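Before relying on records like the one below, remember that each one covers exactly one chain. Contacts with other chains, cofactors or solvent are not represented anywhere in the record.
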Amino acid sequence: MRNPIYTTELASALCDEIATTTKGLKAICSMPGMPALTTVVRWLRSNDEFKQLYAQAKVMQQELEIEDLKDISDGSTDDDMIKVNRDKLKIHARMWLASKLAPKKYGDKLDVNHGGQADNPIITGITFNK
């Protein structure tokens, strides 16, 4: 088991890596000097300081993913149809991922109003003209 003991320095190094790359946690944890994935899971369950650092790092990582969307879409050309289709797939996958990881910010907005609002009143009865 690599680096099983929590230290602020190790936690900060891990969270800095998360915040500055779009690599997944499994890939980061396999890098030299990083804690094992099981260690990170244990820290998330038991350490409030780490939970907060990790959450902030994931928010930053999501922002990098969104920037990647822009870079991919801006770099697409019609010259190479295979590349364009691959880029469309990458964009779609990242948009889906963003909507699942941060639904309040990037998810689909549903209108759940069913009446009672100023612009959508509830009609309580039917009137007939005599």
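The two ends are 85 Å apart (CA to CA).
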